[in-house]
Design brief:
The protein is an alpha+beta fold. It contains six helices and eleven strands. The strands form two sheets. Strands 1-4-5-6-7-8-9-10-11 form a nine-stranded mixed β-barrel. The longest helix has 19 residues, at 14-32. The radius of gyration is 23 Å and the shape is globular. It starts with a helix and ends in an 11-residue tail after the last helix. The relative contact order is 0.16.
Length: 287
């Protein structure tokens, strides 16, 4: 037994010593359990999913009857379009995932956010099954899968069949803007860093109307803290929308159940009535 441990045992209670050893040994044990590939890099391959309620609103918020509220006789009430949903249309509370608690909007961009929030039923791109964008795809209530090798890094998401090919060599600026942007990754120690640019500017961050422009760039950081957990960070920079860069942070959890796999949820066919129903030709049976 080392002199330090002996000293601790003489001066502290048994419970205190065990607690101290746990603090020292757990991080070491966790690091030893991180899966690594042949090059020694952490292997992030697996099926992952975020927990929590950031999907509704990435800023801290209280529970509410609905995202879309209208004035009521005493307090705001759900908009007519969502009344029938009852509790299904309500919003659960969340401590938020934004560092500092608040997105640093420019005044005009904040006004747009407020308008989006009041009309989220018709404005939210995810309602129409458009691709979720980055970073929203990461913390939607759907799993996603990472495929990693020495020469490739690929992410596929259950929602809308979205996917991302993360280039490991920079191909230059994106040739076209897209919902998911163009991703270029590199390693900084044991953290996989992904730079994302080339967005259309049409995606949202959540159901609460938080938005960005085509000029946004995102720096994602994936850091394994043990075999089954990744600490995910994303820093957004967009001078058209925000007064400064800002960051979100949340843990991701590995699916460890037997037979875990990504399902098929290509929801476009489920919203055809919403998108195109008004154009349907009404059958004429001679009436």
């Amino acid at each position: 037994m080392s002199p330090i441990v002996k000293l601790c045992m003489r001066s502290l209670s048994k419970t205190s010593v065990l607690a101290m050893l746990a603090v020292i040994l757990v991080p070491v044990y966790g690091q030893a359990q991180i899966p690594r590939n042949n090059s020694g890099r952490p292997n992030l391959s697996g099926i992952w999913q975020a927990l929590g309620n950031a999907h509704w609103d990435i800023e801290p918020h209280q529970a509410s009857a609905a995202m879309d509220l209208v004035p009521g006789p005493l307090i705001p009430v759900p908009a007519p379009e969502v009344v029938a949903f009852g509790a299904h249309g309500s919003v659960p509370p969340s401590m938020g995932i934004v560092e500092g608690g608040e997105i640093p909007y420019l005044p005009a961009a904040r006004t747009i956010r407020d308008q989006n929030r009041e009309e989220s039923i018709t404005r939210d791109p995810a309602v129409k099954c458009y691709l979720p964008g980055v970073p929203r795809a990461t913390y939607m209530p759907f799993p996603f899968q990472i495929f990693q090798s020495e020469s490739a890094f690929f992410i596929t998401y259950e929602f809308a069949g979205a996917d991302r090919n993360v280039y490991l060599q920079d191909p230059g600026p994106a040739q076209v803007d897209s919902w998911m942007g163009q991703s270029v990754g590199h390693w900084e120690g044991d953290t996989f860093v992904v730079e994302v640019a080339g967005f259309t500017g049409q995606a949202w961050f959540d159901r609460a109307g938080n938005h960005h422009s085509y000029a946004m760039t995102v720096e994602e950081r994936y850091t394994m803290i043990d075999r089954d957990h990744i600490m995910y960070e994303a820093t957004m920079t967009d001078p058209n929308t925000f007064s400064r860069p800002w960051t979100i942070q949340l843990p991701l959890y590995r699916h460890i159940e037997d037979g875990a796999r990504i399902g098929v949820f290509k929801c476009v066919e489920f919203v055809e009535e919403l998108l195109y129903g008004q154009y349907r030709k009404v059958p004429d049976f001679g009436n």
